[in-house]
Every structure is written in structure tokens, then in C-alpha cells.
UniProtKB/TrEMBL annotation:
It comes from the Eukaryota. The gene is AYR1_1. The keyword NADP applies. Its EC number is 1.1.1.101. It is an enzyme of class 1 (oxidoreductase). It comes from Discina gigas. One of its GO terms (molecular function) is acylglycerone-phosphate reductase (NADP+) activity. Keywords: NADP, Oxidoreductase. Pfam families: adh_short (PF00106). The keyword NADP applies. This is NADPH-dependent 1-acyl dihydroxyacetone phosphate reductase.
Length: 287
């Protein structure tokens, strides 16, 4: 079935149950879009298909999977795509000195190279509609959240990629929106909840704080409220190039815009009890 000519289309990656992708899919669907949601093969579709949302398997890290998916979407929409939301993402939480680079490579494959691959395959469809690319970023890409250096770097890379994409796509009438997201009540930490610090970590004495951090229940806004605001921005005739939304975004925006860049150092020093490191390392040689 090809989408009716008068029905706009939105493609959203990473739409597993309980996440931002699910909420965005439902909101675009309520706005009359034909919604195409991607999930990993083992994820349930029960939270989306009863609403009429079209669900497809997709691994954004795999070139063959993405190419085959593009062919299926082209048939479904008649070669048109109004909105591409690069939402698929995973988290890796670990101090910089304990980072497993292989885990970071896996995360960048999803968080950074995945959106690049999606744009590479779907830009013709977006040009056909003078559509919009939406990159779901994070305040972690702006400020130095402790234990999140790798994740923060992936989100910073996504935003800077989006900034250049916006300039390059402007001649073709395609808009690009970077969403700087605050904390939203989702299950993004699911891959980190069993993680703890290595026994020989420089930060081993704060393992209790680390474990509490990765096991925390996000204290942000409801995904539905977040999706309502993001979709509302996307549907504007002239959406903002950078849209900040979610818990703590105003504080981060204000500090990043008006304060000195190292103002965050003191905040996170206190928040993560970094002073506990000082007596541990006094007069001690690190091997």
C-alpha cells in the first residue's frame, strides 16, 4: 500500500516500548501522519501496531539492513518522506579512566553513525517533500556529566553533525532540528543497570554512588509531554534549529550561554562527591 498523497509521513528510529521513540510515534500518529517506526527484531510491536503505526525491523548500524529498509519505505510512501527522526540510541556509563573503547565504538555506531547512515539513504525522499531531519540530542552533549564522557561525546558529535547537515541541506529545502533533550522518564539506562566499577578503578571508593547513579529512576518529564512539545516544534513553518526541551534544559542553556565554561566543574564535583578522591590519592603512586 502506498500512502495517500495527502498524508504526510514520519520515520522514527528506536521505537521500543517505554522510550522516546514510542511517544514520538504516537504523537505523530495523532497528528495524522503515516508513521513508520523501527525496532530491533526481538522487540515487541504490541505498543504500536494496534494504532496503525507501520513497524519494521532495522539495525541502524548495519548497511545492508538500512538499504533493504529504504527500499521498503520507498514502496510504502511512493518515494516521499516528510520527517526523519534519528532517535535510536544507547547509553554507556563509565569513568573515562575505566572506559572500554569497544563498548564506546558500539555506542557511536548507534548514536552517531546510525543517523549518518539514515540521512545517506533517505535524503532523496526528504528532498522530494522539502522535509525535516530531527536529531535527538541531549544536555549531556553540552555539559560534562560525570561518568558519561563517552555518551556525552556521542551526543555532542550528533549535534555538530546536525549543524553542518542543516547548512548543506538548506539549498534543497530540507530543515534540520537538533533537539537538546533534558532528562525524560524512559528506560535508556536499561543496558547500564547491572554495571559497577572495576575493583582497581580510581573511583572504586565511590562505587556506591556509581551504582546508585546507573540504577536511578530518571526524574524528568513524561515521554508523552516531551513528544507533544517536540512534534509541535517540528510542525512549525519555521522551527528552531536547536530546540531545548526536558528537565534541566533551561538551567543548562543559561549556563552554557552566559556563564564561564568551567562553571559546571564545581557543580558536578559536588553532585558526584569528587572530594572523596582527594584523600585516597594523597601521597600515593598510581601504577
Amino acid at each position: 500500500m502506498i500512502a495517500p498523497n495527502n498524508k504526510k509521513t514520519a520515520l522514527i528510529t528506536g521505537c521500543g516500548a517505554g522510550g522516546i521513540g514510542q511517544a514520538l510515534s504516537k504523537e505523530f500518529n495523532s497528528q495524522g501522519f503515516l508513521v513508520i517506526a523501527t525496532l530491533l527484531p526481538w522487540e515487541s510491536r504490541d505498543h504500536l501496531e494496534p494504532l496503525g503505526i507501520k513497524c519494521f525491523d532495522l539495525d541502524v548500524t548495519n548497511e545492508e539492513s538500512t538499504a533493504a529498509f529504504k527500499v521498503a519505505v520507498d514502496k510504502l510512501t511512493g518515494g516521499r518522506l516528510d520527517v526523519l527522526v534519528n532517535n535510536a540510541g544507547i547509553c554507556y556509563t563509565m569513568p573515562t579512566t575505566d572506559t572500554d573503547v569497544k563498548e564506546v565504538e558500539k555506542m557511536f555506531a548507534v548514536n552517531v553513525f546510525g543517523p549518518m547512515r539514515m540521512v545517506r539513504h533517505f535524503y532523496p525522499m526528504l528532498i522530494n517533500t522539502k522535509g525535516t531531519v530531527v536529531n535527538i540530542g541531549s544536555i549531556g552533549g553540552i555539559v560534562p556529566y560525570v561518568y558519561g564522557a563517552s555518551y556525552n561525546a556521542s551526543k555532542a558529535a550528533l549535534v555538530h553533525y546536525g549543524n553542518t547537515l542543516r547548512v548543506e541541506m538548506k539549498p534543497f529545502g530540507v530543515k534540520v532540528i537538533n533537539v537538546i533533550s533534558g532528562e525524560v522518564n524512559t528506560n535508556i539506562l536499561k543496558s547500564d543497570v547491572e554495571r559497577s566499577l572495576p575493583a582497581d578503578s580510581l573511583f572504586a571508593s565511590t562505587n556506591d554512588l556509581f551504582v546508585a547513579h546507573v540504577k536511578r529512576t530518571p526524574g524528568g518529564m513524561a515521554p508523552e509531554d516531551y513528544a507533544l512539545a517536540v512534534v509541535g516544534e517540528v510542525l512549525k513553518a519555521s522551527p528552531r534549529a536547536q530546540f531545548w526541551y526536558g528537565a534541566q534544559t533551561f538551567v543548562v542553556w543559561f549556563g552554557d550561554t552566559f556563564l564561564w565554561k568551567t562553571c559546571w566543574d564545581l557543580l558536578f564535583w559536588k553532585m558526584f562527591s569528587m572530594e572523596r578522591m582527594v584523600p585516597k590519592l594523597a601521597n600515593k603512586k598510581i601504577e
